[in-house]
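Whiteboard transcription, Tuesday session. T.W. wrote the structure tokens on the left side:
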């Protein structure tokens, strides 16, 4: 059933800072009960914009596109926000109840500068020159399509203070010892403004659960070093069933310093990495529909948990 009288505010186009800004503004004007906010700034000073849904106490955080060439997760998450807002505006009881009980914060583009770099929309200037220099030192990584890091060459999902030293040891041993298109942990945890902003937002909200969308693999990671908070395993199983994705264990080399890892470690709250779609990032827009459907299912399961946790 199509609920909204409008065409989707979330076009199937390569996603960068402009598309994200426009889409968030459109959604907030169509659905005035959605609130926009700025969680912080990127390395280049761009606003890290969020949309919030709900007037309740029980918080949840939903993020996408920590990694530049995984930008397809941003419109997928925004399509979920749009669907949720449309159901609420149409007066559907479950959406109204969710609105009353929860406060859901969506940060769809954690890495706006990087997404613009990958999509070729970043303006010429010193930051782009520097990114080209960094990329030239890693000729095996295609440029810009293989770029995952922020514009300064720090991997934003290796910046969180949960096993960061271990992540550093592993990534340095693999040769990622300085600014790079991917896998550089940074000089210290939370030095990258984007990761720091999300960390502060999370500390402020104390979410009952959190989600980070990535590509690719059609799997959901739900543990940190073999540990999962109470309730996380059943919730993960529900998300897997609702999305059609499988539950999996993170490979050891990627098992530290991610957002999910830190939320589990620091807040003891269920947190998940969802690896959307299949193929080589950036995934083609032809996968947006299927990814959006999987994200819709997983988010709905997560929201039902947050509303009652
Ligand atoms: Zn990723």
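and on the right, the sequence the group agreed on:
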């Amino acid at each position: 059933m199509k609920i909204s009288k409008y065409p989707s505010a979330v076009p199937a186009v390569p996603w960068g800072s402009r598309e994200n800004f426009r889409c968030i503004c459109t959604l907030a004007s169509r659905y005035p009960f959605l609130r926009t906010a700025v969680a912080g700034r990127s390395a280049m000073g761009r606003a890290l914009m969020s949309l919030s849904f709900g007037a309740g106490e029980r918080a949840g955080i939903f993020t996408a596109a920590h990694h530049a060439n995984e930008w397809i997760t941003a419109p997928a998450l925004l399509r979920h926000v749009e669907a949720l807002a449309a159901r609420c505006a149409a007066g559907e009881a479950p959406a109204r109840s969710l609105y009353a009980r929860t406060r859901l914060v969506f940060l769809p583009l954690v890495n706006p500068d990087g997404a613009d770099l990958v999509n070729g929309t970043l303006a010429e200037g010193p930051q782009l020159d520097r990114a080209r220099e960094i990329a030239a030192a890693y000729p095996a990584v295609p440029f810009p399509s293989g770029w995952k890091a922020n514009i300064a060459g720090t991997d934003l999902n290796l910046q969180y203070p949960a096993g960061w030293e271990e992540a550093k040891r592993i990534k340095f041993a693999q040769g990622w010892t300085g600014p790079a298109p991917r896998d550089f942990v940074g000089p210290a945890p939370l030095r990258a403004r984007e990761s720091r902003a999300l960390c502060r937002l999370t500390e402020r909200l104390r979410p009952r659960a959190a989600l980070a969308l990535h590509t690719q693999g059609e799997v959901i990671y739900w543990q940190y070093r073999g540990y999962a908070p109470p309730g996380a395993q059943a919730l993960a199983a529900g998300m897997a069933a609702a999305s059609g994705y499988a539950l999996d264990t993170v490979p050891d080399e990627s098992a530290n310093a991610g957002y999910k890892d830190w939320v589990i470690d620091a807040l003891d709250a269920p947190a998940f990495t969802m690896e959307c779609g299949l193929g080589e990032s950036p995934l083609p827009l032809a996968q947006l529909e299927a990814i959006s459907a999987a994200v819709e299912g997983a988010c709905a399961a997560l929201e039902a948990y947050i509303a009652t946790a």
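Someone added at the bottom: The domain at 19-115+189-308 is CATH 3.40.630.10 (Aminopeptidase).
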